[in-house]
Each structure stands twice: as structure tokens, then as C-alpha cells.
Amino acid sequence: MTDLLGKALLDYHNGKYTEDLITSTNISEDDELPLPYLFRNFAEMPKLEQFALKKCRGTILDVGCGAGSHSLWLQEKGFQVKAIDISAGAIEVARARGIQKTEQTHILAISEEKFDTILLLMNGTGIFETVEKTNKYLQHLKSILNPNGQILIDSSDLQYMYDRNDDGSIWVPQERYYGELEFTMSYKGETTPTFPWLYLHEALCKQLAEANGLTFGILKRGENFDYLARLTASNN
């Protein structure tokens, strides 16, 4: 896929910021993703993210690190952090910002290392792509956890984006789970191919976690149907 995210992050980091990323989905109009937000410091992060970072422990894997804002804060606190992203540009920026251990790779390619905390923020369930693929991802994440390790992951319930009936029920698509979206990203006249991105509501996330031998607990809820969960191996 075209690395438009990496291109945008590099532009901002190198002082060439002239416009923001544009995201769109199959259920929403175009939406701006301000580049400065991707370089935010701890004080500028949502409370849910701040809470997640404070709950990190031991060796940490930051999945989908982007510009590296989460890893930077953790590294400054003395943690050993590995930041990964599939975007080459993101990893270049993360390294330039001072993150000591980075790798351009997919989470499913990580197999030789184990971690005490695996961090997936900014709708961490998105990387699972679809409900059907979630089992594969959860099994893999579980396999690279140290004993007593934890997965910290956030997501949102997208019910609020659908029309409601008089009885409070929502109109949802019959052919797919309503949190399975198709995204595109645009930047400076270029647009990525469509890619899948998954939002899981709490009950389904819990069901899938437990089906894969993981305990599920809510650590914090946000103000817009979002939540932060902790997953741990059931035999811990």
C-alpha cells in the first residue's frame, strides 16, 4: 500500500507541513487527521491514552507506533520499548525523534521476542481487520507475551454512527459486523487503496478474547463510546 502516512509524517517532521491527512470510510464523509496531533506530547493525549501509558510495565511492544509519541514517553520513563509500524516513513520519523529500538514490520512477523506489555492504541483493534481474522491476531499476541504479560488495547462501539429506530435499536448492515469498516487515506492529491479496519464493541471484544484463552477487563471508558481493555493469558 502507498505509504501516505509515512510521507505525511516525514513532511511534518522535516518542516514541510502544508496540509493534513484526510481519512474516509464506507459509512462516513471525509475527515481531517491533523498531523500535529500525531506528534502530541503526553499532556496533549486523551485521558484514556495517558491512563494506558501509566499502566505499562516491563518490556513493551508499541504496535503501530506512528510518529512514536507513546514510545517516546515510555522511553523517557526508563522503559525498554520496541516500536513497530508497517510504514517505512513512520519508522524513519520515530528513529529521528530518538526512539532507540524500532523496526518496520507487521505484528504477525514478530515471533522471536516476548514482551511484558503489548500496546495497541488509537483504536488498537483496527489492525485485526475483520472479526473473522481477530482469532489469528489474538493467538499471535498471546504467543509473544511473557508470563504475567498484558495486552493493552482500545476501541470504540460505532453504534452512534448508525441510524436508530424508535425503540432504540440501530440499522446495521446484514452482510458484515457494523464495526468492520473500509478506509482510505488521502494526502497531497494521492489516495491509498481501500483497507479494512475493525472497531470492536466491548461485549464482542470480551467474547473473542475469552474464546482465545485471554481474560478481558475494562480499565477505563472514554467519553465517546470508547474503552481501554487489558487482556491477559487465562493461565497467568
Secondary structure: helix percent: 10-25%
Number of strands: 12
Report how far the terminal alpha carbons are from each other. Answer: 38 Å
In the residues, how many domains can be counted?
1
Series of secondary-structure elements, N-terminal to C-terminal: HEEHEHEHEEHEEEEHEE
Oligomer type = single chain
Unreliable segments of 5+ consecutive residues? none
* Helix-strand category: alpha/beta
Radius of gyration: 18 Å
Q: Which CATH class applies here?
A: Alpha Beta
The main pleated sheet reads as:
7 strands, mixed
Named at the architecture level, the CATH assignment is 3-Layer(aba) Sandwich
Number of helices: 6
Shape: globular
Topology:
Layout: H1 4-13, E1 21-25, E2 28-33, H2 47-54, E3 60-63, H3 69-76, E4 81-85, H4 88-96, E5 102-104, E6 115-120, H5 131-143, E7 145-156, E8 180-187, E9 190-191, E10 195-198, H6 202-211, E11 214-221, E12 226-233
Parallel strand pairs: 3-4, 3-6, 4-5, 6-7
Antiparallel strand pairs: 1-2, 1-8, 7-12, 8-9, 8-10, 11-12
Helix pairs in contact: 1-4
In short:
This protein has one domain: Vaccinia Virus protein VP39 (Rossmann fold). The protein contains six helices and twelve strands. The chain has 236 residues and is of the alpha/beta class.
